[in-house]
């Protein structure tokens, strides 16, 4: 008898949960007052607030690479976060699988802030130390339709074109585990 009662209670509870989950998202009833409350689901396409706010996205996961930055023969860990920034943190390796706790930061304030950046690390100068390679992607320019262009074969949705080609900057790896302050080939202003 007790087992049947438990099964019945579980069945009633699961049906209540299912009815709540599959209920209409537009109106919820407050059990205390009995008045319907309008519920605005942020995932619905008809939400008027969607045009005013950006959807919350989780921050990008940090990326990391293991290279020898200071040329001592042991791998160092270099981590960076957002593709919008060229900031990287280097954790020097001891050679036994452990790294220093305090990281060495590197970033260039002279790069455009809103341009996407791609970071790579390789020994470009063949000196035994990894160099930081930053490719700065240009902002996209939307093509404007010409008013006198009545060509029926023209693409109605032209793809945006870059304003200029991507720029690649190389920061030399230094013996202390940092990268040079200015990229290779750029003179001080």
TrEMBL record:
Residues 38-64, 138-170 are annotated as: Disordered. Keywords: Signal. The keyword Cell inner membrane does not apply. Pfam families: FG-GAP_3. Residues 1-23 form the signal peptide. The keyword Signal applies. Residues 145-158 have a biased composition (Basic and acidic residues). InterPro entries: FG-GAP (IPR013517), Integrin_alpha_N (IPR028994). This is VCBS repeat-containing protein. It comes from Spartinivicinus marinus.
């Amino acid at each position: 008898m007790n087992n049947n009662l438990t099964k019945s209670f579980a069945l009633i509870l699961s049906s209540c949960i299912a009815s709540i989950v599959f209920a209409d998202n537009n109106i919820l009833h407050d059990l205390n007052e009995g008045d319907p409350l309008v519920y605005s689901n942020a995932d619905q396409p008809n939400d008027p607030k969607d045009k005013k706010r950006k959807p919350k996205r989780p921050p990008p996961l940090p990326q990391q690479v293991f290279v020898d930055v200071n040329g001592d023969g042991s791998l160092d860990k270099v981590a960076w976060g957002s593709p919008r920034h060229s900031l990287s943190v280097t954790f020097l390796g001891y050679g036994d699988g452990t790294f220093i706790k305090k990281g060495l930061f590197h970033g260039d304030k002279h790069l455009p802030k809103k341009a996407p950046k791609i970071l790579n690390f390789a020994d470009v100068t063949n000196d035994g130390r990894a160099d930081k390679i930053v490719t700065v992607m240009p902002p996209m320019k939307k093509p404007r339709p010409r008013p006198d262009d009545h060509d029926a074969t023209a693409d109605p949705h032209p793809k945006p074109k870059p304003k200029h080609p991507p720029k690649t900057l190389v920061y030399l790896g230094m013996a202390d585990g940092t990268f040079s302050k200015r990229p290779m080939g750029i003179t001080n202003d």
